[in-house]
């Protein structure tokens, strides 16, 4: 076959393909038009006895002999419309879930929405509270930040079903600070029997009521809240609380696991800034000084976040370490922060400050710390850090040059604490001196 014949054959095949494609397009368009022309099912028009749209429908269900039964009309699913309290509360929860994902706009809009919903709920006809789902929606709204006003109106109407009153009364008692009454009313209610929107919120509330008297039970309820409301602001809040309850109990392994979860999933939350402040304090309470393996644990936790945020968190840990007399923690965190900061930046200056303040009470490293502090310019710092620099320099001077009163005093036994003498010119540094004393005692192994 010559090339000319091959080309002609290829052209005819291509033309046939285009023609088939065009026919398919036309057929699809015709089918769409014909479907649009078919009358809606009888159930949509309220006529349950209307005949099938055409004879073909009967043939499809009863064969081609014309003796098949008519096709049954498709009944719509029974969907009950929810009351206004339910819809308003769902709107609030959707907004709050965006807050958990880091939307500052949603956070700013929340206050206005809370006020709007409260006004709408207060103005409703009292008869609406005869529906249990509306009562539960009002409780959800109140516990989610809406406050007690709507619950007061609800209970004053005396329309709430008797079975729902313990829930409403308990929530109101909680919001008004009557914890004992709230525990009595809410303790017998299983959050798992509540609607999805309320279940996690109720478990979170029950946990807050039990955290002082029964921390273990409180942790169980926080676990339940997270399971019942995954991915929501309720889970974010439950995880935040759980981390600090665990820290107070000293469970370092679980603290690490929960903190990694939070930093992976909710580090962009609007409330993450508050979390990081408290997280830094919790880290130092876990006593990294006495257990070097926990340094690796801290690194694993902070490696979950981006370098800039990691640097800021190390600075918070270093500052908290100084405030709590944890010299090793402050030194470790400040050095890690220096490695993540640009050399001439303010974070780098902060890291040098915290490191120098830790070094002046470290065994054999006083001069290194003192020179580091003297090289800093207090105008580079915010007020709190400038005061810390002043206090650290004053402490260093007192360590280097003991006061005459201290020199005249009899030498204490080797195992006794050596308090740094006070001076009238160092009143602003009193708190820093006390911290230095504790750190010095730790360095020398004294009790």
Would you write up a description of this structure?
The chain is an all-alpha fold and about 450 residues long. Helix content is about 65%, strand content about 0%. It has 21 helices and no strands. Residues about 1-65, about 415-430 and about 440-445 have low confidence and may be disordered.
Number of helices: 21
β-strand percent reads: under 5%
- The geometry reads as elongated
Order of helices and strands: HHHHHHHHHHHHHHHHHHHHH
Report, as a whole number of angstroms, the end-to-end distance: 104 Å
Query: Which parts are unreliable, with pLDDT below 50 for 5 consecutive residues or more?
Result: 2-64, 414-430, 442-447
pLDDT averaged residue by residue: 78
How many strand segments? 0
What does the largest sheet look like? none
Helical content (DSSP H or I, runs of 4+): 55-70%
The whole-angstrom Rg is 35 Å
**Structural class of the secondary elements?**
mainly alpha
Short synopsis of the structure:
With 447 residues, the protein is mainly alpha-helical.
């Amino acid at each position: 076959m010559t090339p000319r014949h091959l080309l002609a054959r290829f052209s005819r095949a291509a033309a046939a393909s285009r023609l088939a494609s065009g026919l398919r397009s036309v057929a699809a368009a015709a089918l769409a038009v014909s479907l649009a022309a078919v009358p809606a099912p009888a159930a949509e028009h309220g006529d349950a006895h209307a005949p099938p749209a055409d004879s073909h429908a009967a043939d499809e269900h009863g064969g081609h002999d014309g003796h098949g039964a008519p096709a049954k009309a498709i009944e719509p699913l029974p969907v009950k419309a929810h009351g206004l309290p339910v819809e308003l509360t769902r709107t609030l929860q959707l907004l709050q879930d965006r807050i958990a994902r880091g939307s500052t706009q949603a956070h700013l809009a929340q206050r206005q929405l809370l006020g709007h919903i409260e006004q709408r709920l207060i103005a409703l006809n009292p008869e609406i509270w005869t529906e249990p789902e509306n009562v539960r929606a009002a409780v959800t709204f109140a516990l989610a930040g809406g406050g007690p006003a709507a619950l007061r109106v609800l209970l004053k109407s005396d329309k709430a079903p008797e079975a729902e009153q313990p829930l409403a009364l308990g929530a109101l008692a909680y919001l008004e600070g009557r914890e004992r009454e709230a525990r009595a009313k809410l303790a017998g209610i299983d959050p798992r029997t509540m609607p999805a929107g309320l279940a996690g919120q109720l478990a979170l509330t029950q946990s807050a009521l039990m955290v002082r008297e029964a921390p273990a039970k409180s942790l169980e309820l926080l676990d339940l809240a997270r399971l019942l409301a995954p991915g929501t602001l309720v889970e974010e809040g439950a995880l935040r609380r759980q981390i600090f309850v665990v820290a107070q109990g000293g469970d370092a392994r679980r603290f690490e696991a929960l903190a990694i979860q939070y930093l992976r999933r909710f580090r962009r939350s609007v409330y993450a800034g508050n979390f990081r402040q408290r997280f830094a304090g919790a880290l130092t309470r876990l006593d990294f000084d006495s257990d070097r393996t926990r340094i690796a644990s801290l690194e694993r936790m902070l490696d979950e976040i981006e370098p800039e945020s990691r640097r800021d968190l190390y600075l918070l840990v270093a500052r908290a370490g100084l405030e709590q007399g944890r010299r090793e923690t402050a030194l470790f965190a400040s050095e890690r922060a220096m490695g993540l900061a640009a050399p001439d930046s303010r974070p780098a200056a902060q890291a040098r400050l915290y490191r120098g303040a830790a070094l002046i009470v470290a065994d054999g490293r006083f001069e290194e710390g003192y020179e580091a502090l003297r090289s800093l310019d207090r105008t580079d710092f915010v007020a709190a850090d400038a005061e810390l620099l002043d206090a650290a320099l004053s402490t260093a001077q007192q360590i280097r040059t003991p006061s005459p009163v201290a020199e005249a005093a009899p030498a204490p036994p080797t195992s006794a604490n050596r308090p740094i003498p006070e001076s009238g010119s160092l009143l602003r540094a009193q708190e820093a001196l006390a911290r230095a004393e504790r750190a010095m005692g730790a360095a020398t192994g004294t009790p």
